[in-house]
């Protein structure tokens, strides 16, 4: 993430911070190797303070692509995947560089490395673009990780909000998604009580708590 005290939130697309980015990436790989985690979120970073987004967009994209190619080469030696997550700039972070799956997909195409994927957080995607069904279908081949939270409160999936998560989960199943779904939300109260939505979902699918089939038992 760079130096949070200096207002940084990632370095991969920030001009002039390439050396610090590589140092941070090597540290992330060290930790990922130790805990057996095969995926690393490569954070793009923020548009520098005092600069116009449009004016620096080209230089930031060039920096991002250069750093992503370096990342892909390093991660390929570890059999790891690098993930790009668009973060909305309407609510969460007005200065974040990477904002939409369309932007991320275009950059992934330019980089052209199979071990770099899209980390699609449906909270950010809904705020920036909506059209979740079509976006999931369109970008499914690029997706390496999914994250969820209700919109706009960023709480549990069954809290009041815009998104119909039972439908979304069934869509992911129908598309053949077999990866993890990260619960990137802030519980409204107690964390364990807040997981009632997951127990209800398992039961609706004929599963025991823990995701195992009743029929299998």
TrEMBL record:
<feature type="domain" description="Xylose isomerase-like TIM barrel">
    <location>
        <begin position="9"/>
        <end position="200"/>
    </location>
</feature>
<comment type="function">
    <text>Catalyzes the reversible isomerization between hydroxypyruvate and 2-hydroxy-3-oxopropanoate (also termed tartronate semialdehyde).</text>
</comment>
<feature type="active site" description="Proton donor/acceptor">
    <location>
        <position position="184"/>
    </location>
</feature>
<keyword id="KW-0413">Isomerase</keyword>
<comment type="similarity">
    <text>Belongs to the hyi family.</text>
</comment>
<protein>
    <recommendedName>
        <fullName>Putative hydroxypyruvate isomerase</fullName>
        <ecNumber>5.3.1.22</ecNumber>
    </recommendedName>
</protein>
<dbReference type="InterPro" id="IPR036237">
    <property type="entry name" value="Xyl_isomerase-like_sf"/>
</dbReference>
<dbReference type="InterPro" id="IPR026040">
    <property type="entry name" value="HyI-like"/>
</dbReference>
<feature type="active site" description="Proton donor/acceptor">
    <location>
        <position position="85"/>
    </location>
</feature>
<dbReference type="GO" id="GO:0046487">
    <property type="term" value="P:glyoxylate metabolic process"/>
</dbReference>
<dbReference type="InterPro" id="IPR013022">
    <property type="entry name" value="Xyl_isomerase-like_TIM-brl"/>
</dbReference>
<dbReference type="Pfam" id="PF01261">
    <property type="entry name" value="AP_endonuc_2"/>
</dbReference>
<dbReference type="InterPro" id="IPR050417">
    <property type="entry name" value="Sugar_Epim/Isomerase"/>
</dbReference>
<dbReference type="GO" id="GO:0008903">
    <property type="term" value="F:hydroxypyruvate isomerase activity"/>
</dbReference>
């Amino acid at each position: 993430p760079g130096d949070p005290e200096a207002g940084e939130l990632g370095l991969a697309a920030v001009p002039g911070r390439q050396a610090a980015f590589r140092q941070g990436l090597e540290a992330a790989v060290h930790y990922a190797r130790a805990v057996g985690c095969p995926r690393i979120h490569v954070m793009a970073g923020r548009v520098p303070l005092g600069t116009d987004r449009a004016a620096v967009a080209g230089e930031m994209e060039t920096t991002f692509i250069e750093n992503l190619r370096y990342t892909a080469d390093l991660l390929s030696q570890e059999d790891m995947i690098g993930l790009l997550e668009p973060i909305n700039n309407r609510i969460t972070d007005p200065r974040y560089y990477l904002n939409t799956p369309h932007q991320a997909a275009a950059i992934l195409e330019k980089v052209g490395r199979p071990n770099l994927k899209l980390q699609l957080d449906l909270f950010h995607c809904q705020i920036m673009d909506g059209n979740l069904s079509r976006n999931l279908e369109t970008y499914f081949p690029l997706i390496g990780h999914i994250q969820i939270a209700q919109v706009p409160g960023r709480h549990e999936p069954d809290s009041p909000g815009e998104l119909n998560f039972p439908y979304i989960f069934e869509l992911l199943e129908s598309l053949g998604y077999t990866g993890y779904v990260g619960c990137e939300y802030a519980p409204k109260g107690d964390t364990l009580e807040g997981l009632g939505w997951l127990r209800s979902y398992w039961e609706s699918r004929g599963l025991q708590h823990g995701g195992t089939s009743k029929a299998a038992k």
